[in-house]
Design a protein that fits this description.
70 residues; alpha+beta; Arc Repressor Mutant, subunit A; 3 strands; globular
């Protein structure tokens, strides 16, 4: 059981990692320009850091699940 808890903790940490657009594009198998376009349109959840966009891995995973439910 302890091993499972450790795994879950590690999974939570990795899902809260901030990703760049290239990484999100690779996950979705789309172009980086599409990720930026969808970000600017407000359709992909992001964190704005000055002029930079970052994407929380957990938010992207939740967004994918939400899109699949439509």
């Amino acid at each position: 059981m302890d091993g499972q808890l450790d795994f879950d903790g590690e999974l939570r940490r990795s899902r809260d990692t901030l990703l760049v657009a290239d990484e999100v594009a690779a996950m979705l198998r789309v172009t980086t320009s599409l990720v930026y376009a969808e970000t600017r349109a407000g359709r992909i959840p992001c964190v704005r850091l000055g002029r930079y966009y970052r994407y929380r891995a957990s938010a992207i995973a939740a967004w994918i699940e939400e899109v699949e439910q439509r």
